[in-house]
Write a structure and sequence with these properties.
The complex is a heterodimer. By secondary structure, chain A is mainly alpha-helical. Chain A has a domain of 67 residues. Helices cover 75% and strands 3% of the residues of chain A. Chain A contains 23 helices and 2 strands. Chain B has a two-stranded antiparallel ribbon with strand order 1-2. In chain B, α3 runs parallel beside α5, α13 runs parallel beside α16 and α15 runs parallel beside α18. The radius of gyration of chain B is 21 Å and the shape is globular. Chain B starts with a helix and ends in a 7-residue tail after the last helix. Classes of the chains: A mainly alpha, B mainly alpha.
Chain lengths: 563, 476
């Protein structure tokens, strides 16, 4: 199975190399379809064999010897509950993306598909990497094809869009590289006999304890990089531009896969690595998430361009994901994970549909459409399902994610207030407003433009590529547990572990002479405040341990499981 | 017998020195440039092979301590010969197309390479000076190779005047250090007991001389003019081999002659590294000429490398050596492709606007250019990333976090000008109807090998880092 995981990851890359020697455009398309379908087919056993009750460790783990000689940087790949669904989403979307650009991409076809395939390998690597350094490498590997995809096959303003996208992201990630190096050395000194390490198991182990001041800076640096990638308001300005200018396939991959790397990284690295800082800054991130939800929705409402509207709705939906993660409870984090998948499916479908309309009408302006439903009944049904899923209609997938997140945020101890959920819920109402209004203007009403009368309905290929997405949208909506079960155990474990580590680190740091700002910052959170004060009053950490016996018991249990 | 063994320790030097003389004679009697090219290739390959085998050989000193061999010196030779061999390979096609393919070029390249080899093997300031001079004088000639081009002559004259100045500083520094320590051997200088005015003035002047050779800001003024004016493949040679040689010699001097003064020169280099990165990158942003842009980019790279020198630990020196290797691969490659585009329409072709839409013609060349440029940006999985990463990491380990942060921000800014080339190659329409011809087989395969190595050492850096890790003091 370990081998299978690696085959799934690298098959697209080999496909991309294969495309270099194929001259016929049609052959290129079929080869890409074959490669991505094979990748998806091969990834299904990974899902079926997945042990959903396992916690703490990754499955299908490949670990090599250190690659960098004197430094313990390993090629380490595996899947766990946090990554399984996103990994599958990536393999699932790939053939659909290939099909969606079947006829719309006419120039440099081989180049286009090889970029898509390289992007696929990069994305799968991001979700499967369990070494922070490997994660960084695979992440950058996704940036290069994306740069070319937007820049070569994009719309009119594509060069500005792609350069902004690339540099904006890189600034954050290069700064993160410095923080990553710092973490590597610190972890090396504490848990790896002085040898630099970025092994996920080691940097999230209880023995790896960072001081609060260190955590703050590292958290902010990592957080900055991830915020840009998600993007979280106010670092979002590259997104609408990139989405609008990208070709359909680029937008779909960006929405369905690439944006998830940011949110996934928050869950996988940001929160577990710097638990105290994550808890202290949780309200701030939650506020940014809520602002993103409302801001994205309001801006989406006034868009004239359908694609831009969908792009801004992405900002709104990702706000929910962030809110769910920083609720620090299982239900919120579960909601966040399923919401990532949902957003990938419904927004992906919306971008594909907008692409289909654009291919026929060469316009994305809402005003250029109207009454399209008469000419394109099949598309109308699909569009309707995707729109309703995006709004969060009960019975479709969007509802599940948003509901879980709102419940999580409502009951969150760390956030400590139900107002976050109340304001976030506004976003759902606004979504109904802008999505349905857009849908009504595009699909219904009288046909005001002559050109629209000649529109032809979607063909078999287009139906074929949308139907699988629609099936999943309904499936998740009706039986969400079929999907949430994959992440439940691992998420619960991770949050408990994070909480335990946060308390241990706070207890350790209590005796330190913290600068005033840090004390103030870390006083905000209820549990930590007690820990910090107990320490300051001169009680030794061991006496304090009694108070948190429950948590210690939890940790022991976790350690037993590990062994 | 002892002396015969000593000769073996400098075998690359002997090969290249003999080759230089041989090619010069060949030129005098036949004047056949192609023959000269062939022999230069043969000798360079032999010297590279010997240097590579020396990497795994013993380390030590010979010629009464004048020469150091093995370890860092051997790696310096590999760097020099890699740069030389690939630039020579590219030179024939380029010079034939642009005019100026004469046999003297090769003998001058070989003499310059000889100087560089001596430089990286020197264990004594006098040997070092001899190396620098042999290298520089040959380079002055090479820069002015195309006699009927104003730019080229201007480059040679500027290079010569400024270079002579810098040599003066260097020599003065050497003299003062000799005055302070009573010796020109690196180890003896380290043992200087009285560190007075003379000593510090000597150290300062020595640093200035080196800063000039590695084109650190504010001693970088000559670099853009010379790199732009010189024939492109010669620029590739200057930018890689001579810079690597200067950096390796710098490491030798810093680690062997001035280990006790690390705190002092560490701070000095800290400041100059910062200046070099920031100014190099900012000036590169506004260049329209690709050669000039690459010249500023090489200044910026010198800045990143200097972060490693400022850290001044074993790990940092290792990282710098790795960086230099990656730097050599990607720079020869990038200049090679610039040279290839240039031969279609002459010098005008180095303007970035004339690159529009060329990426899809001759797609392999376009892909290779992308590889080299992304590697320069420092994006995995290319060798440039590993180099940058290791240098930054060594500096973070030494606590130079603020310098590294400036470094990463500077390299984020650098993305803009590197990407600009790719934007023109791939995302704009070809307006002036340039039609690219197929490059020659040798030219093509040299670039392909460079590209392959750039990817190989990016994916598989362990091979080199393991080897570099075995270089331990005192034979850095």
């Amino acid at each position: 199975m370990e081998l299978l995981l690696n085959i799934v990851i690298y098959l697209p890359l080999f496909g991309a190399l294969l495309l270099l020697v194929i001259r016929q455009d049609d052959w290129v398309r079929w080869t890409s379809l074959l490669v991505t379908s094979a990748t998806f087919a091969l990834s299904i056993p990974l899902l079926l064999q997945f042990d959903i009750s396992a916690t703490g460790t990754a499955q299908y783990l490949t670990v090599t010897e250190p690659l960098l000689g004197d430094w313990d940087v390993k090629y380490m790949m595996g899947l766990d509950g946090l990554s399984m669904l996103l990994f599958m989403l990536t393999t699932f979307m790939a053939p659909i993306v290939v099909l969606s650009s079947w006829s719309s991409v006419k120039k440099h076809v081989a180049g286009f598909y090889s970029m898509l395939l390289i992007l696929q390998t990069g994305s799968l690597g991001v979700f499967a990497a369990l070494d922070l350094f490997m994660f960084y490498i695979f992440f950058e590997l996704t940036q290069i094809p994306m740069f070319f995809l937007i820049g070569i096959w994009g719309g009119e303003d594509r060069i500005y869009a792609t350069v902004k996208f690339f540099i904006y992201t890189l600034v954050g990630w290069l700064l993160m590289l410095v923080a990553l190096i710092y973490v590597g050395f610190a972890a090396g000194n504490m848990v790896n006999d002085g040898v630099f390490t970025t092994d996920w198991r080691l940097i999230t182990s209880p023995e790896f304890q960072l001081g609060l001041v260190e955590q703050t800076w590292l958290f902010l640096t990592f957080g900055f990089a991830f915020c840009i990638k998600v993007p979280i308001f106010p670092f979002h300005s590259w997104l609408p531009l990139a989405h609008t200018e990208a070709p359909t396939a680029g937008s779909v991959v960006l929405a369905a896969i690439a944006l998830k790397m940011g949110t996934y990284a928050i869950l996988r690295y940001l929160i577990p690595l710097f638990p105290n800082a994550a808890i202290a800054f949780a309200p701030m991130f939650a506020v940014l998430g809520v602002i993103g939800i409302i801001y994205g929705a309001l801006v989406a409402m006034v868009q004239k361009d359908v694609k831009k509207l969908v792009a801004y709705s992405s900002i709104s939906h990702l706000g929910f994901v962030v809110l769910g993660m920083f609720a620090f409870n299982t239900i919120g984090a579960q909601g966040a994970i399923i919401q990532m998948v949902n957003h990938g499916l419904s927004t992906g479908a919306l971008f594909i549909i907008v692409g289909m309309l654009y291919e026929r009408r060469h316009s994305r302006m809402i005003a250029d459409f109207g009454g399209v439903a008469k000419m394109m009944p099949v598309l109308t049904v699909m569009f309707m399902i995707a729109t309703l899923a995006s709004i969060g209609l009960p019975g479709l997938n969007g509802f599940v994610g948003e509901f879980l997140i709102l419940v999580g945020a409502f009951n969150s101890e760390v956030l400590g207030s139900s107002w976050y959920a109340v304001f976030a819920a506004l976003g759902v109402i606004l979504a109904a407003g802008y999505m349905l209004w857009m849908f009504q203007r595009v699909m219904f009403g009288p046909v005001t433009h002559e050109e629209n009368k000649k529109l032809t309905d979607i063909n078999a290929r287009e139906i074929g590529l949308l139907v699988p997405i629609m099936i999943l949208i309904v499936w998740i909506g009706i039986r969400p547990t079929d999907f949430t079960k994959y992440s439940e155990a691992q998420v619960t474990w991770m949050l408990e572990e994070t909480q335990a580590r946060a308390e241990a680190m706070a207890a350790n740091a209590a005796g330190d002479q913290l600068p005033a700002w840090a004390r103030k910052l870390y006083d905000v959170t209820p549990q930590l405040a007690t820990t910090l004060e107990t320490g300051i009053d001169g009680t030794s950490p061991s006496e304090h341990a009694g108070e948190t016996a429950g948590n210690d018991a939890n940790r022991n249990k976790i350690e037993d499981q590990r062994q | 017998m002892e002396s015969a063994n000593e000769l073996l320790t400098i075998s690359p030097l002997i090969i290249i020195g003999a080759a230089g003389l041989f090619v010069m004679m060949l030129d005098a009697f036949t004047g056949n440039a192609r023959l000269a090219y062939l022999f230069t290739m043969l000798f360079s390959t032999a010297a590279l092979a010997v240097a590579v085998s020396d990497l795994f050989g013993p380390m030590g000193e010979s010629f009464n301590g004048l020469i150091t061999y093995g370890g860092t010196a051997a790696f310096g030779m590999v760097l020099v010969m890699t740069g030389t061999l690939f630039s020579v390979t590219l030179s024939r096609d380029y010079l034939e197309k642009t005019g100026g393919h004469i046999a003297e070029v090769y003998s001058m390249i070989l003499f310059a390479a000889f100087g560089m080899l001596l430089l990286v093997a020197s264990n004594n300031l006098v040997t070092l000076f001899l190396g620098i001079e042999t290298m520089s004088i040959s380079l002055y000639v090479l820069a002015g190779l195309v006699k009927n081009q104003k730019k080229s002559v201007e480059a040679a004259l500027k290079y010569f005047l400024l270079g002579a100045f810098a040599t003066g500083f260097l020599l003065y520094g050497i003299a003062l250090l000799y005055g302070a320590s009573g010796s020109t051997f690196l180890v003896d200088i380290a043992a200087t007991e009285e560190k007075g005015m003379i000593y510090w003035a000597g150290v300062g002047l020595l640093l200035v001389g080196f800063f000039f050779k590695i084109s650190a800001v504010p001693f970088h003024m000559w670099t853009p003019d010379v790199y732009q004016g010189a024939p492109t493949t010669i620029t590739a040679f200057m930018a890689t081999a001579s810079k690597s040689a200067a950096f390796v010699a710098f490491i030798l001097v810093l680690s062997r002659a001035l280990p006790d003064a690390r705190a002092e020169w560490g701070d000095v280099i800290w400041v100059f590294a910062l200046l070099t990165m920031v100014i190099g990158n900012i000036l590169a942003l506004v260049q329209d000429n690709v050669k000039r842009m690459l010249a500023y980019s090489s200044i910026a790279h010198a800045g990143y490398i200097m972060i490693g020198l400022a850290a001044g630990t074993d790990a940092a020196y290792n990282a710098v050596l790795f960086y230099l290797f990656a730097y050599t691969l990607m720079n020869v490659g990038a200049f090679g492709i610039v040279a290839y585009y240039e031969w279609h329409k002459g010098y005008d072709m180095t303007d970035i606007n004339n690159y529009s839409g060329l990426g899809f013609q001759q797609p392999v060349m376009g892909i290779l250019m992308s590889v080299f440029l992304f590697s320069m940006v420092g994006i995995p999985p290319f060798a440039g990333f590993i180099g940058k990463y290791r240098v930054f990491a060594a500096a973070v380990d030494e606590g130079l976090i603020s310098l590294v942060v400036v470094g990463v921000l500077a390299s984020a800014a650098s993305v803009y000008y590197y990407l600009r080339v790719l934007v023109h190659l791939y995302m704009k329409e070809n307006e002036n109807g340039t039609v690219l011809t197929r490059p020659g087989t040798l030219y093509f395969s040299a670039l392909l090998i460079l590209g392959a190595l750039t990817i190989f050492f990016g994916v598989n850096p362990g091979i080199l880092t393991d080897l570099l890790g075995t270089f331990k003091a005192p034979h850095y």
